[in-house]
Amino acid sequence: MNCKVTSKEELIRRSKEIVKEEGIVFLNMRKLALKCSISLGTIYNYFSSKEELISSTIQDIFKETMEESLFCFKKTSFIEVVSIFHEKLYTVSEEYNNFILDHSRIASKENRRVMDYYHEHVKKNLLRILNEDEEIDHSLFDDSLSKEDYVNF
Prior knowledge:
Order of helices and strands: HHHHHHHH
Structural class: mainly alpha
């Protein structure tokens, strides 16, 4: 039996459960209220709209994903970092029911800003690690393929 939920953090946690079970495109306020055994009106005390609920859930999943992935940026091997990060993205997509693909289709401007922030963080760290990796043949990069272009890809 579900117990009543009365905090925004717990509502987001339950929203993430819905995303895991059904996917981000199926998250809505009625479904969350039912899952939490609270009235629809109570959800509106925390989220003014479905868009805000989805946005908060997407941001929390991104935050969780990036925080768990930060350790890989302490490594010195570019190939190892890319491999770890790729595996994490794959795991998140599997755990959250195809989240990586689906969230981009429904992302609002605010969600895109959050995604851009994390994307820039990832690119900056990948470029740093690429520059520092002594196993990389740096002569492979030139005007036709810069390190920045490679990391952006």
